[in-house]
Amino acid sequence: VAGISTYLLCREIGAGPLAACAGALAFELGNSTLDLTVWGPTMAGPYVWLPAGMLFCERILRAPSARNAAGLGVVFALAVLPGYVQPVFLAYQLIGLRVLWALASRRVARPAAALLALGAGLALPFLLSAVQLVPAAEVARESVRSMSLSAAEMNPAGLLDWQRFRQAVDLRTPSNPLVLVPCLLVGAALSERKTRPLALFYLIAGVLCFVLAFGPNTPLFRLYMKLPVAGLFRYAERFMWLTSFSLAILMALGLEAVVTTGDARSPGAAFAGVAAAVVALAAFRLLTPKGLRPVEWPVAALAVAACAAAAASPGLRRWGGAVVVVALLANVLAVPALARRQYLLADGEQLFTHAATFGALRERMTPQDRAYFIFRQPFGTGFRLILKSASLFDVPTIGDYEPQMSRRYAEYSVMMRLGRPMASLNDVLYVNSWTPPGLNRRLLDLSAVRFLLVDPAVDNTAAVMQPPLVPVSGFAADASAGTDADVRLYENPHALPRAFYVPRVAVVTDSSALLERLARGRDDPRRVALVEVPPPTGFTGSPNNDGTGSVTFETDDPEHVVLRVHAARRGFLFLADTHFPGWRATVGGTPTPILRANYTFRLVEVPAGDSTVEFRYAPTSIRLGTCVSGVTILAVGILLLR
Hints:
The structure is a single chain. By secondary structure, the protein is α+β, with helices and mostly antiparallel strands. The protein is built from 27 helices and 15 strands. A 5-stranded antiparallel sheet has the order 8-9-15-11-12, with no helix packed on it. Strands 1-2-4-3 form a 4-stranded mixed sheet. Strand 6 (504-507), helix 26 and strand 7 form a beta-alpha-beta unit. The two termini are 29 Å apart.
């Protein structure tokens, strides 16, 4: 997708086949594309559609039509579907800059029609992908990521500065968008009158994004933050994605200038391009603290020599262009970006090192149990013990890798782990210790954490967990006994079940006070659940209700839970699953409101005796989104077939 769409874009803006091929290779094998493909496939999915979006933007500016608007809409609908919208958000901004540039330079034949087609094309993805976007918006509204981020939350690893950028160039890390050979061709793109207007745009766009990547360190970024929803996304240095793309287009335009034949190119412009390549080579050398890699010197010399030969002899321009493409390939293949290549697993064997351990844990657990993983960072265990192991081996846990949990659950989990209110998104996403000294045992027990799987290298449970946990026989770190020496399993005998009967509820209208009382109060969670609003029936339980009950799971699927409840007296069923829009409950087949209880979980009223409680996830947002997508697809199809 990246290569083909970039090739078509370059052809659309006037590059020949050879130059377009060079641009496609520069983007397809560029630092940003490689990095996202290795580290974040859900990020790479949207990013690689960027050149296709720019292709239809160029077509609309040249010849606005419903077909081109539909093409633009379909491209970005496909980009949105992986569920990661930041690359699309950046792409829309680049299109906005491109349109402003075209209008300012008066290179739009029919401005009104072009703006109408662009507006329709940019709105269309939200309608085509509504089946995903509408429920996703509902999730986002409840999510811990629903608010604008502070500078510390936006750049949790620290802001990019000039020194860090130079180190990135020196190490060829992903935050560096610069590749040597494309940098050498920028001057050629600017020196030639044919390619200069678009080259100037992509140079300015690339530089703007480069500056924005330094985040609040620059006044430009502080001005940018005034845009709507600009503060929702992390890592300002991701603007380098657009710089990397702009450099690939400049590579194509530069090579097109090199191979231009006939009277279209003056000798002065040709040699100016060669001089610019020499200057760019010197600048690249100065930018890298340790200098160029040994292989980069001959690659650069080959590219500069090919440009010089093409400038000196028009008959050699095609051959010179071909040599530049060879130099580009040698550059990206011999000196690729680090791009976290060490994390590519040849066969995934590391991930399954502890498969038997996770399988044994899963067999011990019932639907009433949850697990808690206490591991080092994945790099410390070679990805053998990771939070995602829960998904890989189907072990129900209360945590995950950077989860988009509800804000309520995030606040609960931070209070559980740190013993204080959540102060920042970083408290949720960047965890230094899963069992710090401030861990709140009451909240851990209420989360139904029956088992704790622990990496011995970070096992401090004896000091933190009071009352103490119970080591599970057969899981001790004793390789000689034939057990898994890399993990320890503990059972928490004080864990509450995931679902249980509660005789009464207490109303605490202040949510912060409720969480504090839940964490440090004297209430017995088995006897009373804390809610923020009274039940619709007005029933809160009898103060002298000492009745008991039992709960068993009949169905335990991700979107469908059925429980059999026996209650000695009228009361409530508590379920330690997240309270969330879209869940509906019935008790004995009768719809029943779901209350938010104990800050973030679910509770329904149940009668005395036996009853069946059913929870089903059936959000209206999915049906609404499906209808919008269906109608839009039908309308676009009719429009295109007319």
